[in-house]
Amino acid sequence: MTISIDRQNENNKSLQPNGWLRYFSFSLDHKVIGIQYLVCGFLFYLIGGTLASAIRIELASPMSDFLPRDVYNQFLTLHGTIMIFLWIVPVVNGAFGNYLIPFYVGARDMAFPRLNAVAFWLIPPSGLMLIASYFVEGAAQSGWTAYPPLSITTPQSGQIIWIISVLLLGGSSIFGGINFIATIIKLRRPGLKLMQLPMYCWAMLGTSLLVVLSTPVLAGTLILLSFDIVAHTGFFNPVLGGNVVVYQHLFWFYSHPAVYIMVLPAFGLVSEILPVHSRKPLFGYTTMVFSIMGIVVLGLVVWAHHMFTSGTPPWMRLFFTIATSFIAVPTGIKFFNWVATLWGGKISVNSAMLFSCGFIINFVFGGITGVALAQVPFDIHVHDTYFVVAHFHYIVYGGTVFIIFSSIYHWFPKVTGKMLGEKLGILHFAITFIGFNLCFAPQHWLGLNGMPRRVAEYDPQFEFVNQISSIGALLMAISTIPFLVNIFLSVRNGKDSGDNPWNALTPEWLTSSPPPVENWEGDAPLVEEPYGYGDPFFDENKKI
Amino acid sequence: MTTLDSSKEIQKNKSEVGEHHEDFRMFGLVTFLIADGMTFAGFFAAYLTYKAVNPLPEGAIYELELPIPTLNTILLLVSSATFHKAGKALLKDKNSDSQRWLILTAFLGIIFLICQLFEYFHLPFGLTDNLFASTFYALTGFHGLHVTLGTLMILIISWQTRLNKGRITSKNMFPLEAVELYWHFVDGIWVILFIILYLL
Amino acid sequence: MLYKNIYLILIISCVFGISFWIGFNVNLLPAEASINAPIYDELFKILFIIGLIIFIGMSIAVIYSLFKFKRKKDEIGDGIALEGNLSLEIIWTLIPSIIVLIIGIYSYNIYDRMGGMKELNHSHEMISSNTEKIWAGISQASNKDIANINLSVEVSAMQFAFLFNYPKGEFVSGELHVPVDQKVSMRMESKDVIHAFWVPEFRIKQDIIPGQPTILNFTPTKVGKYPIICAELCGPYHGGMRASIIVEEESDYKDWFNKNKKTEVNL
Fold first, then answer.
1. CA geometry: angle at A258 spanning A157 and A480, to 5°?
2. How far does chain A reach from its first CA to its final CA, in angstroms?
3. A426 touches chain C (CB under 8 A)
4. Residues in chain C where the model's pLDDT stays below 50
């Protein structure tokens, strides 16, 4: 039976267009789907970034003078939703996951290629629908959290479109998650043990578990919310006897794990990149695996730390403080292990490496503010302020987006067979790193001193710091130019990379670049030591 | 190597791989059902929280009668058993027996849905009357949707199990097994739902 | 080997020194104007110093590695084949665990001193009945008994304003006037969507939720005018939803109160 299905796939593949046209087709090839995810996500990143620029222009002056107030709220809602659901989650899971996981497990495709294609093709329409809602009657304007009763009382059409598109994106994410779990657990090449898998597989396994366990809860919650909006039920409407805090619990039951859905794959990717460019084995493989699983388990029981000011009982605050603080332990282990991976290596300081190191520095900063935010008394002051805005941008931008760029520099030769320019890459890194820190570091101070988030106007005393932040945002916007030029130049007439420009040992490099349709000409290689770098004559007792 | 050779080679590899990973579709289905179960878990959690913290406003009506849902519980449990019988029969290549059991299962599902609708029409409260009424309809409605979907799938596979021409045989049990697992899942959800909504 | 250790100790003490210096000399917080504020700032200082040590330490380690272990031009070969070090891994599992545990216990202590763990009781005999479900808010540290509340205010929030109802004077004000050094208890309820009551100088915040009253107690310690900010997105004019809290000497407060009250009630 399996064989006959595969044969159908085979037929389908031969019917598909070749060349660049295949990226616009319902392709079942995991590599094509991965690239579709990446490019589609990047286009949405540009849109989300444009919205962010508009927000930063508005905030360059204390008055609400650039955008109408309701449009400002629509922009911040769209910015959050697009960046999370259409850029980071699809790219860091869908794009790299689809491209790399089949290589890593030694398969020729994902477990369910058709489901995979469906999962991708849910994304562009729902994204376009979300953006189109702005031109209909105004997009949703209750923030990406869509807290009722605000989401019930704001204009309905935008909110309903927002719900439908998030439901579709959630569905896409669940299909992707099922596919990854099945591929990693069931589709491994014979002889390949779980503890021999590259770290990214473990990260994706953990992420997919979180997706499968938590996304459906968000779906259910949004269905209830849509009932409240359309059918005038009262689940979350206090006027009709509903309870707004229940929504927050259900929402954060998904949306806190969503943070790990965004950063765990980045942890996996950086674990692939660092050993290759520092020519050293990944330090502490086993502890890395356990810390990923620890983060998964803890990640499911910390959601209420987003609700310390929502009238939660004291015992709940205490429990969630402790659980949240303890996430710092497995996360900390990973960071120490990465630094230990760098230590004593022969490091090629290239764009991929720089972005990865930038990630470590930014994320450590974001993690420290995160531990502080987990403490109830600390959080009570800074909750819903720019401190929180700065914190999560350090995590998702300084963390994940840095790794997305790092990964693009690392795997671009794999996908295209061409190298990216190093000079432009380093320029890209420098502008991004400076712009990012200039934009978000001052926001910690703003939050501590009394600037709430999601405001179009603020106390004039914060004007100067906000302008610094806006200049940082401008730099971040500019930073995409060298990146795009680099890609363009490289595709036009880049240097040929050869099959394995980094001399990497992970399985995806053990085939030609770009890889053939079925990944390998012959059998998939059995890679028992994906991180087997290092001087074989190294004597552990001699050095260190 | 010519393309023909390479594709043959791939096919050969695939058959090896295929033997090794025979049942991963079932694995995918189980994962999907876990996800689906989490949706219900979210609804249950919401309902239980409402029960714990939101008092029923004065004058609001929220009363449930036991007979119909008890009958429904029995119907679903029996239908799980009949589905199991259908699978057993197919395994022994008794396709027409299997088909009969499947049709009986679908019939039980349809009766369940009719009973559910009957209950809806005779309840003293409507969808938007109060919080608990809304939650009741949302939960049973979402479950009813699952039963409807399941019944349709059972009808389709019962057509496919027909002798000689059907695609589902003892050698290709997967569609039947998949729907069976789904059906047991829906059944299990109902039992939990019955306990939480009607008995608690 | 010996020199290596000396350098290491030197660097570590530098990191600690710089962190402590910054922690004690850089003030990132606004004025302290309530009993809660100094307690909060104490916690902030500790977290700030620990955070700085970790951040500076990690950054130095990363940047140092990039320079020290940089591949030289035309250099070939791999780094050392070090796959892990169990004792090192145990150390950096245990130390963060201990730090996190200490922070947790310490912040629990801080929270307790702020009154967060205390049973909430509210002195609104006139308005709240016993059956009403009060949702937790934050109570606050006070040397006095928790029941010893000097001023009770009913806060209602709506798009896009706060209204302060002084039940004892039966009047409603758009500004919150409170006497200095006296415990104030507020019962807050929203008329429409979720709002939040935030006074940065007091380091307190509590959501104002429709359908579920919340309670916030505080004691101002410094005379002055401070902003009340809505911190939960509540609609287009969310940014403009502000009010002022005016902390004044008791006599000034009484004058203001008597000027506004409608009926004669003994204070």
1. 80
2. 56
3. no
4. 121-133, 136, 139-146, 267
How close B39 comes to chain A (CA, Å)?
A: 5
pLDDT tens for residues A265-307?
Answer: 999 999 999 999 999 999 999 999 999 999 999 999 999 899 8
Ramachandran angles phi, psi of C150, nearest 5°: -90, -30
Confirm or reject CATH 3.40.50.720 for domain A24-510, answering yes or no. no
Q: Residue type for C181, please?
A: D
CA distances from A407 to A103, A155, A238, A431, A486 (A): 16, 40, 47, 18, 15
Do C220 and C184 meet the contact criterion of CB atoms below 8 Å apart?
yes
Instruction: Determine the distance in angstroms separating the CA of A524 from the nearest CA of chain B, rounded to an integer.
Output: 10
Asked if the Cβ–Cβ distance from A253 to B128 is below 8 Å, we say no
Chain B CA closest to residue A213: B35
Closest partner residue to A311 (CB to CB) among C136, C193, C204 is C136
Q: What span, in angstroms and rounded, lies between the C-alpha atoms of A255 and A258?
A: 5
- Of C257, B25, B142, C230, give the one whose Cα is nearest residue A216: B142
Give the whole-angstrom CA distance, residue A528 versus residue A506: 9
Q: Which of C238, C244, C245 to mutate to test the interface with A (most CBs of A within 10 A)?
A: C238
Q: What are phi and psi of C246, to 5 degrees?
A: -115, 110
Q: Cα–Cα distance between A483 and C29 in angstroms, integer?
A: 38
Paired residues of C197 in beta bridges: C206
Chain Cα centroid distance, residue A12: 31
| C-beta atoms of A378 and C107 within 8 A | yes
**Which pLDDT tens digit goes with each residue over B127-159?**
888 888 889 999 999 999 999 999 999 999 988
Looking at the domain covering C135-260, what would its CATH class be?
mainly beta
Contacts of A150 in chain C (CB under 8 A): 193-194, 233-235
Contacts with A221 from chain B: Cβ below 8 Å: 42, 46
Q: How many residue pairs from chains A and C have C-beta atoms closer than 8 A?
A: 293
User: If we measure between CA atoms, which residue out of A194, A198, A186 comes closest to residue A265?
Assistant: A198
Tokens of A58: 């508005």
Measured in whole angstroms, how far is the alpha carbon of residue C82 from the centre of its chain?
Answer: 44
Going from N- to C-terminal start, the domains of chain A cover 24-510
Interface of B with A in 30-49 (CB under 8 A): 31-32, 34-43, 45-46, 49
A304 lies within 8 A of chain C by CB? no
Counting Cα atoms < 13 Å in the Cβ hemisphere of A120 gives 32
Chain B contact for A240 (CB, 8 A cutoff): yes
Those of residues 33-72 in C touching chain A at CB distance below 8 A are 39-40, 43-44, 47, 50-51, 54-55, 58-59, 61-63, 65-66, 69-71
CA-to-CA separations, A327 to A269, A291, A320, C192, C251, in angstroms, rounded: 20, 9, 11, 36, 51
Contacts 24+ apart (CB under 8 A), C53-57: C53/C15, C53/C16, C53/C19, C54/A364, C54/A368, C55/A364, C55/A365, C55/A368, C56/C15, C56/C18, C56/C19, C57/C12, C57/C15
Q: Where are the domains of chain C?
A: 2-67+86-114, 135-260
Residues of chain A with confidence (pLDDT) below 70: 1-18, 535-544
- Decide yes or no: CATH 3.90.550.10 for domain B25-53+69-199: no
Q: Where are the domains of chain B?
A: 25-53+69-199
**What is residue C85's DSSP assignment?**
-
Angle between helices A199-230 and A156-186 (to 10 degrees): 150
Rounded-to-integer distance, Cα B156 and Cα B169, Å: 14
Cα A220 to Cα A213: distance, rounded to the nearest angstrom:
12
C1: number of Cβ within 10 Å:
5
In this predicted structure, what is the pLDDT of residue C124? 38
